[in-house]
Amino acid sequence: MSLSWICQTYSDFFNWNKVKIRYCDGASFAGHPESEKGSGLFFRGQIIWETIMNELLSIGMSKAKKALLTGCSAGGLATLIHCDNFRQLLPKGATVKCLADAGFFLNEKDILGNSTMKSFYQDVVQLQGVAKSLHKECLAKMEPSKCFFSSEILKNIKTPVFLVHPAYDFWQIHNILVPQGSDPHRRWKSCRLNIQSCDANLMDTLNNFRSSLLKTVNEFQQRKDIGMFIDSCFIHCQTLMEETWFSPNSPKINDKTIAESVADWFFDRQVVKLIDCPYPCNPTCHNLDFARV
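^ Pectin acetylesterase, sequence as received from the core. Prediction below:
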């Protein structure tokens, strides 16, 4: 029995070629060998990226008419870092765009007032020599670690970009807002595992974190080439699974799934700027429950 009708019904991309690049370098394919300095550690993410692109171009991608570079989490950050380069590699007449899923990491302080994520980025950028892969326009204005944040990268991207992002991104809650060691009294123990366990005070903190995300992306609202699907789900990546990408019970905003929204944007059917109301208003969300793991 053919199931092609399902693909045609739920995804505009059903007959596209798909290439999955395994992530392993620790710096979103932006590390440089000059930073190795005889340590025995290898930081060659940028070279890995270039090698993979050359291979794909040699086996047919150089003739592509449409292309979408996408990635989730650190892969979403890699998508933003390499988006313009990807555009330059493909034919001038091709439609080339980028989609970052849960890759919009915030430069926010944790619940103790520490700049945990900023400090982490400083270490990664210094360790792997990431600055050579970042936009020169940004580097001329601020230190390299700040230019590693998605908001600064997006300011300099010329290629159309779509942001898929949960307003209650569990990875960012676990690692930016309430990182390990920041909750000695374990007030956040249950809340970090299941958003339904958060009391009113903790939800206020989570909603402030959501507000920081919306304030940051608001800067890009006027750019028609930037699309957004920011739902109010407690999840991280949403484009990798059928359940959250294009199934009948996928998360929706204004009755549009992520796949439908991305397709509307990619094929220029309409400008897409979908931002959900606060938790728990969206019953279509796939909220993860780590207490069951």
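DSSP finds twelve helices and seven strands in the chain.
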